[in-house]
Amino acid sequence: MLRYLLRRLLLLGPVLLGISLITFILMQLIPGDPVAIMLQGEASSPQDLQRIRAAWGLDQPAAVQYLSYLAHLLSGDFGRSFMRQQPVLPVIADALPATIELALASLLIATVIAIPLGCFSALKHRTALDRAVTVLTVLGISMPGFWIGLLLVLLFSVTLNWLPASGRLEFGVGLEPITGFYLLDSLLQGNFDAFGDALAHLVMPAFVLGTAMAALTARMTRSSMLEVMHQEYVTSARAKGLRERAVIVGHMLRNALLPVVTIIGIQAGTILGGAVVVETIFAWPGLGRLTVQAISARDYFLLQGIVLCFALTRVFFNVLVDVLYSLLDPRIRFS
Questions:
Q1: What is the pLDDT of residue 72?
Q2: CA neighbor of 298 nearest in space, from 24, 66, 25, 33
Q3: If you ran DSSP here, which 8-state letter would residue 163 be given?
Q4: pLDDT score of 332
Q5: Fewer Cβ atoms within 10 A, N terminus or C terminus of the chain?
């Protein structure tokens, strides 16, 4: 296992190099001058624009710009953000906890809903419950997230006034940031008013982000359970007199979890990037919303840093899924 993990880490370098190159090329193809956008609304002469381009290195050929970026990247310097006028890493670090908190909440919602729902659907195969779950999962996969988000805002924020429509915390709620995770910070400080307010802000975006994930996971759980529920080891477990709950959880569900873990890992690896639309709708101050702002401002260095962060997250979850494989099925070994 250790050799396998080391090999995966060695392959991380070429992967990140290729991603950084593709991101740089795509950013160069986007029309618009980042300096002109940065100075929009200010009186500036062509000489001023040229001077600022030279200061940022934007007057160099594209190949020279990329090689210079790589040289700084190898030394741990991700560059400076045009938009924020500060180093890229602190900007990403400020927005990352919000996205992680949203991603973990949506992952928790999706898993808690999907796995039991898929199990019940398989156990009640070809019944009304099974058909209802199938319809719900198809709707969950088919409906776009931005549409669900707008409907929830219209219902729970505008009509019923139950939940806040945007942001992470109501203005005026006193909370001292410690970790950047508002739910955790409020518990550490014993501020239950802030905890309730942060939770209320988190409910709708987490539900929207977890809807498609829950639907796909439920369908995969149902299919996997149907494959294993008639296997010989399940019949043997029942013949030994084991309780039905022990048969379902210990024999059927455990063996059905391998493809389910795969689909959860794939979705968890992309959930940070998938939060772009949801964070924009709910004005959630995370990496997704920061990505949209960086693209609008043609902030090359900031966008490249965000994409590299997404890539590292994807690789981490892929490795984590491989490790979980060996825990769920001792027969699986990585050499």
A1: 84
A2: 33
A3: S
A4: 65
A5: C
Q: What confidence tens digit (pLDDT) does each residue in 22-76 have?
A: 888 888 787 777 777 777 656 567 777 788 778 777 778 888 888 888 888 888 8
Torsion angle (degrees, nearest 10) of CA 142, 148, 151, 153: 180
Interatomic CA distance for residues 299 and 200, integer angstroms: 32
Six token digits for residue 326:
């060996």
Q: What distance lies between CA 60 and its chain's CA centroid? A: 35
In DSSP terms, 80 is beta-bridged to 87
Please give the C-alpha separations between residue 245 and each of 115, 234, 238, 253, in angstroms, as whole numbers: 15, 12, 10, 10
Written in H, E and C, the secondary structure of 19-32 is HHHHHHHHHHHCCC
d(CA 263, CA 62): 39
Summarised one tens digit per residue, pLDDT across range 28-40 is 787 777 777 777 6
Contact (Cβ atoms closer than 8 angstroms) between residue 139 and residue 211 = no
Flag residues of the chain having pLDDT under 50: none
Decide: 18 and 332 in contact? Cβ < 8 Å.
no
6-12 CB contacts, 8 Å cutoff, 24+ apart: 8/315, 8/319, 12/312, 12/315
> For residues 248 and 268, what is the distance between their CA atoms, to the nearest angstrom?
26
Q: How high is the pLDDT of residue 43?
A: 59
**Can you give the pLDDT at residue 213?**
86
**Residues constituting the chain:** 335
**Comparing C-alpha atoms, which of 319, 222, 211, 199 is closest to residue 271?**
211
Contact 134, 218 (CB under 8 A): no
pTM (2 d.p.): 0.83
Nearest to 251 by CA among 267, 270, 231, 269: 231
The DSSP element (H or E) to which 198 belongs, if any, is helix 192-228
Spell out the SS3 assignment of 273-291. HHHHHHHHHCCCCCHHHHH
Alpha helix ranges (H) inside the chain: 2-29, 34-38, 46-56, 62-74, 88-123, 128-142, 145-152, 182-188, 192-228, 232-239, 244-246, 254-281, 287-296, 300-328
Residue 186 half-sphere exposure toward CB, CA atoms < 13 A: 17
